[in-house]
Structure formats: C-alpha cells, structure tokens
Amino acid sequence: MVDYEEAIYLYWPDENSTEEVLTALRINDADICISLTCDFDDERMGTSQELQDAIMNCEDSAYPYNLRSLSIYNNCDNREKSERCLDFFLQSITINPTYMDSKPWTLVEAQKVATGIASFSSYFTAADLTLSGDVFAIEGTFECVFNAVIDGGIIDEFVVQAESIPDLKLGCIGRSNLATNTTLKKLELCLWYEDDVVVVDEGIEQLANALKSNRYLEEIIITRSFITNTGHRFLLESLRDNITLLNLDKKALAMGMHQDDDVNEDETLHREGGIEGRLLQSQFDRHMKLNRFWKRLKKRGNDDEDNDDEDEDDSDNDNDENGEKELGRRSISMEILPDVLEILAKKPLLLYKFLREEDHTQQLGTLYDRPSHRIRRRSERLFKKRRITAPGSKF
Hints:
By secondary structure, this protein is of the alpha/beta class. It has 2 domains: 6-227, Leucine-rich repeat, LRR (right-handed beta-alpha superhelix); 329-395, no CATH class. Helices cover 43% and strands 16% of the residues. It is built from 16 helices and 9 strands. It has helices spanning 18-25, 42-47, 49-56, 79-91, 107-118, 141-152, 172-175, 201-213, 229-239, 265-271, 274-306, 337-344, 348-355, 358-369, 372-377, 380-389, and strands at 6-12, 32-40, 67-74, 96-101, 127-133, 155-162, 186-191, 219-223, 247-252. It has a 9-stranded parallel β-sheet with strand order 1-2-3-4-5-6-7-8-9. Helix 4 packs parallel to helix 5 and helix 10 packs across helix 11 (274-306). It starts with 5 loop residues before the first strand and ends in a 6-residue tail after the last helix. The model is unreliable at 308-326 (pLDDT under 50).
C-alpha cells in the first residue's frame, strides 16, 4: 500500500466549489490522496456534468488512484435523477466507495449494484464498500448485493448502515457463500435507530453457522438491537470452531445515537441482554483473546520461516487444509512452550491444530526427555522471568 504524504478532503458543494474540486482532481502527483464527498439533489444532478465527467475520467489520468475514496449522497426526489445518481456512483469506482440514499432500492437497482460490484475486480485487488440509508427496505435487495460482495472476490470490508434489513430474517446469510468466503475481512451491520422490532436472531444463527467454517472474517460489528441473548448463544457456540475472528462487537450503538446518550444504566443493561448478556460477553472476549493469541503465534512462526534459506524444502511453505500457513520450526522456544500449551488448551481446536504439527510433536518429546537436573538447576529468578514474559496469566 502506498503511503501518501498529503491528504485532501473535499466536500462539494457545502465547503468546496466545483472549481476547487476540479483543480484538485487535475493534480498529477502520486503523493496526493483525495477524499471527495458529493451531495446531489435534483438541481445539482442536472448542473454538474463537468464535475461528474472529471470524477469518472480520473482513471484515465497519470495517477488514477489519487481519488482514494468517493462518497455520494443521493438526495434527489425525482426518480429519474435519483437513478442517474446511482448510475454515476457505479461508474465512478474508487477503492473506498460510499453511497447513501434515503429511498429504498428496487430489485432492479439492487441487481444493478451487484453488477457494478463485479466490475471492481477490473480496477482493484481490494476495496471497501459502505452502503447507507434505507436502501435495503425491500425484500431481496440486501441478499442480491450481499451475494455479490461475497462472491465478487474483491470487497474486504462491507459496511451497511441501514434503517432496516428484512432479508436478515429470511435466510439470506444461510443461502450465501459466507461460510467459504476468502476475501471479506470485516462485516458491519448497523442500524440508524434502535428499535426492538428489528431483532433478527434467525439471521444471527445463520451467521453463527457460517462462522464455524469461515477462515477469513476478522471483524464483525452488529448493532445491539439486532440481537438478543438467543443470538448471543448461537454466536458463542460457533466460536468454539472459529479461530480467525479477532473482534466481535455486538453491542454497537445505532448510527443515530451518541455514546453520551446511553447514560441510563438500567436501559443499557436491558439492551445488552441483562446479567446473562454480560456473562456471555465475557466468554466472547475470552474467545477473541485466544484467537488473537493464535494469530500472533502463527505470525511469529511465519516470520521465522521468512528468514530461512530459500533452498529449504518447499513443504515448509505449504498451507494446511484451511488455507492457513503452518507454524515455523523455530516458532516456539522451549522456555515458553508449557505456557503456550496451557493457553491453547483453553480452546481445544487451537490445541489440536498446534499438536498436529509434526515439529511441535517432536518439541514435546524433547521437553519431557530433558534431564531433570537441568530443571532443578534453573534459578528462581529465571523461573519468575519466564512466567512474567509468557502470556499465560492474561488468558
């Protein structure tokens, strides 16, 4: 990823004029990163053709990726102009596109968006997509777009900020390929406003089932109004079989709320599922901590492998059945191996995956074959040092 030296944030037309935006888009400098937000209504949609052309032609410039993010707010009341605004958004592809519309998409429009997502692969190797507003109020629209995100092989962060997503109750996640997804790293499902009638534990159960097999998702954020303790239990059960999820936030506030608004402790406790909900949360946190430990463990092994001679057997770089790189031979020192085993034993799947490594099995034999006098001679100071540096006490 390129490290940009200068970022330019433009907000048209509230803070920046058309000429200012055009001037910025014409800058041919690889160190310039432009983030552009455009607010269209019926009048602006019809009088800003020069600006629209300049945005769409960015890909033909010397530095086509200067426009790193584009946010389109569709406030057009006229249906024809609203459709033109959506078409413009789909033709103006950037790495981080955001689209907001207060009007529900039709199935035809959702299919158009799905087709547009498929074209992302022609431009980028990875992209983030944020869709906001009441776009998924009609049944079938979210499923159509969600399937395109999962199957497109290009979106690694998908953020939905919606007033409602009825498809979550109708089996859309269960029918998707989320369980075998290999591109999406972050999924965010957020409401604009909190309302008890939007509980979608059925969809949460399908999400939990997908997590049992998914080996790529690292972060999930869900507005707390979507889920009750029933959904919490579905997710908790799935985490026994998931080793890649690093952050699961199921207590997110609605988009229309600020943290300071949530000051009533009784209401907060109710929203979080009462005492049972908080107890479940502690178990979620435990799984996330163990998964993060496992990721650091793998990274340490992979870093060691990167230092090996290139002439070593290629089998050292093979992936296991879940597409995860095996831990390197020198990944675990004998000093902290007992503590590592103690931590991994708290999640049987992690311990199993660790022990199935042939080299680690050999290490275990070496550990228990060591002469007992070497253990007795270890100073108390060294023993304490090992206990301090090893992560066992954190888990």
